[in-house]
Amino acid sequence: MPLRCLSMIILTVNTGSSSVRLAAFACDGRTLTELVNVRHDLTAKADEPEVVLREFAQTHGITSRDVSVHRVVHGGAALTTSRLLDQEVEREIDRLAPLAPLHNPAALHWIRATREVLGADITQVAVFDTAFFKDLPGLARTYAIPHALAKKHGLRRYGFHGLAHQAMWRKWRELQPDIPHGGRVISMQLGAGCSITAIDNGTPRDTSMGFSPLEGLIMATRSGDIDPGLVTFLQRQENLGPGEIDQLLNERSGLLGVSGMSADMRQLSESQDECARLAVDLYCYRARKYLGAYLAVLGGAEAIVFGGGVGENVPAVREKILAGMGWCGIEIDSKRNHGSGGVLCVSSPESRAEVWVIPVDEAAILAQEALAVIAAKENRVFQG
């Protein structure tokens, strides 16, 4: 392997709209060793990307000779594989910003801040959440709108949370290597954003998020599925423009909108307030509806896998989502479900499908993708 890959640090940057997770991996060309992994909530001026990155880089000895890799939520139709960041890739990420307004602009900010802090020569890689779904079947990616309009604007279902669903799938396969044909898995990524994916032998067959990360499940502040007629109604009746509609559905809806008090699932689960209970019930009901639909898409499943902050840490939500699923043989064990963290099998011995809790390690996948991109680039140069 070329010398560049034999000794370096890979900085992973996983940005959200109000937080960032930074990790550093030592790389010896073949193996990756995690050095540090921290979440940083961005709440004040002192939390500007440049400030956070400079402190992190100085603390962990990261320089322009190392590599940074960024999770980017929307790669659209053009960015379907992990890419070295250049002006063309950055322009496309920026062009797609209206489709992921809470995420793509934040990712670009951190990409540019990394260049400013570590120098213009730093090698940067972008990994796209949509890439896992690049081969989504036509029936699962097509909207029932005029074909010419869809083709003109690239109006199709892209899918998101690809890194998380891929991580859950990979870990489950490690745990169950003897399942024939790779197995059928329904993975639920439940955090601030929420999505569910039907996976057959490692290939996504359908997923709940679509053209943007707004479609599908009810989320912390996002509405998920709604009747499009509501949008035009609100535009007329409330005189709302496109930006105001975006803000309403992305930042003021979901658990926050229904409860009127919080987007925090733990707080809502413990509340006796009627609207809080309604928000939790709606959230779980929507997830159960999708679960039933994806069981039909796959013709059954070998496993249901929960990940994400809510999926991993709120047992009551897992239990409520799976309540009443005995008709298809899915049974959760209450004692196992309330077990301590890490990877857990929480289904009963009699359950026809296993139920797992698998913490999502997106940082490791980001680092692996960066290493693969750098190695491929340097092999091309080396082979000349």
Characterize the overall form: globular
Distance between the termini: 14 Å
Spatial arrangement of strands, main beta sheet: 3-2-1-4-6-5
**CATH level 1 class label of the largest domain:** Alpha Beta
Determine the number of helices (DSSP H or I, runs of at least 4 residues): 15
Low-confidence stretches: 1-5
User: What's the total number of strands?
Assistant: 12
Q: Do you know the CATH topology of the largest domain?
A: Nucleotidyltransferase, domain 5
CATH architecture of the largest domain: 2-Layer Sandwich
Mean of pLDDT: 91
List keywords for this structure.
384 residues, alpha/beta, Nucleotidyltransferase, domain 5, 2 domains, six-stranded mixed beta sheet
List strands and helices in order, with pairings:
Elements: E1 8-15, E2 19-27, E3 32-41, H1 49-60, E4 67-72, E5 83-84, H2 87-95, H3 104-118, E6 123-128, H4 138-141, H5 147-153, H6 162-175, E7 184-190, E8 194-200, E9 203-207, H7 228-237, H8 242-251, H9 254-259, H10 265-270, H11 274-298, E10 303-307, H12 308-313, H13 315-322, H14 334-337, E11 344-345, E12 354-357, H15 362-383
Parallel strand pairs: 1-4, 4-6, 7-10, 10-12
Antiparallel strand pairs: 1-2, 2-3, 5-6, 7-8, 8-9, 11-12
Helix pairs in contact: 1-3, 11-13
Your description of this structure?
It is a single chain. By secondary structure, the chain is of the alpha/beta class. The chain has 2 domains: 126 residues, ATPase, nucleotide binding domain (Nucleotidyltransferase, domain 5); 155 residues, Nucleotidyltransferase, domain 5. 41% of the residues lie in helices and 18% in strands. Strands 3-2-1-4-6-5 form a 6-stranded mixed beta sheet, with helices on both faces. Strands 9-8-7-10-12-11 form a 6-stranded mixed beta sheet, with helices on both faces. Helix 1 crosses helix 3 and helix 11 packs across helix 13. It is globular. The N terminus is likely disordered.
